[in-house]
Design a protein that fits this description.
The complex is a heterodimer of chains A (about 240) and B (about 550). Chain A has about 240 residues and is of the alpha+beta class. Chain A has two domains: about 80 residues, Ubiquitin-like (UB roll) (Roll); about 130 residues, Alpha-Beta Plaits, CATH 3.30.70.20. Helix content of chain A is about 25%, strand content about 15%. Chain A is built from seven helices and ten strands. The model of chain A has no long low-confidence stretch (mean pLDDT about 95). By secondary structure, chain B is α/β, with parallel strands linked by helices. Chain B folds into four domains: about 110 residues, Glutaredoxin; about 200 residues, NADH-ubiquinone oxidoreductase 51kDa subunit (Rossmann fold); about 60 residues, Ubiquitin-like (UB roll) (Roll); about 110 residues, de novo design (two linked rop proteins) (Up-down Bundle), CATH 1.20.1440. The chains are: A alpha+beta (about 240), B alpha/beta (about 550). The interface between A and B is medium-sized, with 33 and 31 residues.
């Protein structure tokens, strides 16, 4: 066999919600679903960053699999039968969103990202109209020590996009997570005020990838914080240079 | 080290033993040390000197003898006499009576079922050899299995013996060990690693600690054999830092093995090299999960990642990695020495060999036991364990720690193995066994384990992070007597979502204690909710709370 032929990924066929589709073997279920116009909800996932399968919204049913699988990280396989909109999945997604809303203080009307928030949009899209779980209302501080940006932990859903973009794209690794369980917090450097961080390059990538109003530009009033999509362009440019 | 040198060490050691005189074995595992067995050892040494018996008698520290509730334990090697609850003041009397019938006042009955009903494979040297001297391990056939594997078997034959033995992972999930070894052996990679998981975190479990403290060389030997079988030359032992004694003995053991050429380059003159390093856990329960453990060894935050890819294919630094539990590795040397078929002859159809359990809670003989698979729960609790103290009534036994479940009285006759425990809603787990009597409130027990899971959740995935917190709040409400039937329904719904959507084993199994207590003790939940009372009298349901309802 020609050795170079081994490196080219082969094309497989699979079924998503009963529809036959084809895909390269190195693609994830999420990629293939999107290509074929099948909606799978995601929050922690962002094209251009390493998927971590943390938010569990993209879980899908795969025939023969013992468990539900996260579409963002699951590689396709030949003849896979995937279901993305079963009754169980719809129920679980709503419950996971409810848990997120109940965890911290997601009060949209006074949030800088009102109207531009991925969590809010997801709730609307999935038809979540009320939260049955008691709100936990933790008391969390706001760090506004940075010249241009601020972090409001009350809005954070711990998707770790900021951690990943800072590490993988900017290469600074200013952000990380401290604590565990519901006490987890995204921190800058070794939990120093963001404004005093020596590793932060103030590039603002973390602010742009934040799905909620956790990271925002100073001076924005409620509903004024909009985001730019820069990652797809960056990823594309980097790929072409290789 | 040559085979002849190994034999010589064993012979010298055995010769010294046959010289006559008496050897007093003092338990120096963490349980007995906590009741001052180190002071007892000192006093015995002084007493021997005082009575001028220095030439014929000696004192040595040994590993765990099992019956922890009766510590400190002292055994006389030559006569088999066992003394319990020894204090430094008793030393004189014990030494004076050497060679005479044992001191009645302190004697521990070794014919009781606790000792006679056990079958020791993993713990065969525990309480017999001095864990701090490699020579004693070698005299007890130590490193013979490694010699045999390296000199007369090829790696595939080693794996075949392990497969034949039917050994399943002793860490909890029970994955067939031979299959795992075969997978790692097959996986492609320039470098491969062997990791020993000693991050024992279940409340009430101390099997791995005892093995590491009592017989550390056995684990090293098992790992080296595994390294040979899968093609790895580097091993890591991940031990929690809360086990300082185990860590110290392990580090000393590694040094001794290296000095004797039993670890390091060209072991027994073959081309096989194997090194082992100790890595300390920093107190996170989730680091017992294999992908989180690997992240932690790499120096990263201990968080699990989705599988596949499994560590066998992509593990430590993306290299194929074999991860087994301490007890699994401890089973390897006897399997290689005696053959896989010998091991497969012990236990039941689906559970081979023995299992070490840490017996704790409302049972007379708390301690460490090793029993063949297939023994019934009743035998373990009422014969070996001696039953429930103070004439109280048995209520349930909890196996598998926070990932397991509570088993009620109706299943006491059940044979203990992986499948039967799973059938009744619990798991084998790593071997923690907590017995509960009628004074335990099952809702309170469920709340205890849920609090554990909540505080140990790493916080990466949403259902485990927030779901366990919400479940804990609901259980607090129930035990506080302020819950409604709606709360119970919500609790059950949360159990379902957390179990089915969590990222790793911690979240997937976190609802188990609640699910199993709801299954067998639903009436207790209902009493808290409908009648606002705790049948066991544990939960404090006050009048003021009733008024607010």
């Amino acid at each position: 066999m020609n050795p170079s032929a081994q490196k080219v990924p082969s094309v497989k066929t699979l079924q998503i919600n009963g529809k036959d589709v084809s895909a390269r073997e190195d693609q994830t279920l999420l990629d293939v679903a999107r290509e074929n116009g099948v909606f799978i909800p995601t929050l922690c996932n962002l094209d251009g960053l390493t998927p971590i399968g943390a938010c569990r919204l993209c879980l899908v049913e795969v025939k023969g699999a013992r468990r539900l699988l996260p579409a963002c990280i699951t590689q396709i396989q030949d003849n896979m039968e995937v279901f993305t909109e079963t009754e169980t999945l719809v129920k679980y997604r709503k419950m996971i969103l409810e848990l997120l809303f109940a965890e911290r203080n997601h009060v949209c009307s006074v949030c800088v990202s009102n109207g531009h928030c991925e969590l809010q949009a997801m709730a609307q899209k999935l038809g979540l109209d009320h939260i049955r779980y008691p709100y936990l209302y933790p008391k969390l501080a706001v760090d506004a020590s940075h010249d241009r940006f601020a972090v409001d932990h009350n809005r954070c859903i711990l998707c770790q996009r900021c951690v990943r973009v800072c590490d993988e794209i900017e290469g600074a690794h200013t952000w990380d997570v401290q604590g565990r369980g519901t006490a987890s917090l995204v921190i800058t450097d070794l939990n120093q005020p963001w404004g005093t961080s020596e590793s932060c390059t103030s590039c603002g990538k973390c602010v742009q990838v934040c799905p909620t109003g956790t990271l925002f530009e100073k001076g924005r009033a409620s509903g004024e914080m909009t985001k730019r999509e820069f990652l797809p362009y960056l990823t594309l440019m980097r790929e072409e240079r290789v | 080290m040559t085979p002849e040198e190994l034999q010589k060490i064993a012979d010298t050691e055995l010769e010294a033993k046959q010289k006559g005189g008496h050897t007093l074995c003092v338990c120096m595992a963490a349980g007995c040390v906590s009741t001052q067995s180190d002071k007892v050892k000192e006093s015995l040494q002084q007493a021997i000197e005082k009575h001028g018996l220095k030439e014929t008698c000696k004192v040595k520290g040994v590993g765990c003898m099992g019956l922890c509730m009766a510590g400190p334990l002292v055994a006389v090697e030559q006569t088999g006499a066992l003394y319990q609850m020894v204090t430094p003041q008793d030393a004189d009397e014990i030494v004076k009576n050497l060679g005479k019938p044992p001191v009645k006042r302190l004697e521990c009955d070794t014919t009781q079922p606790f000792f006679t009903r056990q079958k020791k494979i993993v713990l065969e040297n525990s309480g017999i050899v001095d864990a701090e001297r490699i020579e004693e391990y070698i005299a007890a056939k130590g490193y013979e299995a490694l010699l045999e594997a390296l000199t007369s078997m090829n790696p595939a034959e080693v794996t075949e013996q392990v497969s034949k033995s039917g050994l399943r992972g002793r860490g909890g999930a029970g994955f067939p060990t031979g299959l795992k070894w075969g997978t790692v052996a097959k996986a492609r990679g320039e470098r491969k690693f062997v990791i020993c998981n000693g991050d024992e975190g279940d409340p009430g479990a101390f099997m791995d600690r005892s093995v590491l403290e009592s017989d550390p060389h056995r684990v090293l030997e098992g790992m080296a054999i595994a390294g040979y079988a899968v093609g790895a030359s580097q091993g890591y032992i991940y031990v929690r830092a809360e086990y300082p004694l185990a860590v110290k003995r392990l580090k000393d053991a590694i040094k001794q093995a290296e000095r004797h050429g039993l670890l390091g380059h060209n072991i027994f003159g073959t081309t096989f090299s194997f090194n082992i390093e100790v890595r300390l856990g920093a107190g996170a329960f989730v680091c017992g999960e294999e992908t989180a453990l690997i992240a932690s060894v790499e120096g990263k935050r201990g968080q699990p990642r989705p599988r596949p890819p499994f560590p066998a294919e992509r593990g430590l630094w993306d290299c194929p990695t074999l991860i087994n539990n301490v007890e699994t590795f401890a089973n390897i040397p006897p399997i290689i020495r005696n053959g896989g078929e010998w091991f497969a002859g012990i236990g039941t159809e689906k559970g081979k060999g023995t299992k070490v359990f840490a017996l704790a809670g409302a049972v007379k003989n708390t301690g460490l036991i090793e029993v063949p698979m297939g023994i019934s729960l009743r035998e373990i609790i009422f014969e070996i364990g001696g039953g429930i103290p103070d004439g109280k009534k048995f209520k349930a036994v909890q196996t598998g720690g926070p990932s397991g479940g509570c088993i009620p009285e109706q299943f006491l006759e059940m044979a203990v193995d992986y499948d039967s425990l799973a059938k009744v809603g619990s798991i084998m787990g790593s071997g923690g066994m907590i017995v509960m009597d009628e004074t335990s409130c099952m809702v309170d027990v469920a709340k205890f384990f849920m609090e554990f899971c909540m505080t140990e959740s790493c916080g990466k995935c949403v259902p485990c992070r927030v779901g366990t917190k919400q479940m804990h709040e609901l259980l607090t409400k129930i035990t506080g007597g302020t819950a409604t039937a709606g709360d119970l329904a919500m609790l059950e719904e949360l159990c379902d979502v957390v179990k089915n959507t969590s990222l790793c084993g911690l979240g997937m199994t976190a609802p188990n204690p609640v699910v199993s207590t709801l299954r067998y003790f639903r009436d207790e939940y209902m009493a808290h909710i409908n009648d606002r009372r705790c049948p066991a009298g544990v939960c404090k349901i006050g009048k003021e709370q009733l008024a607010t309802v």
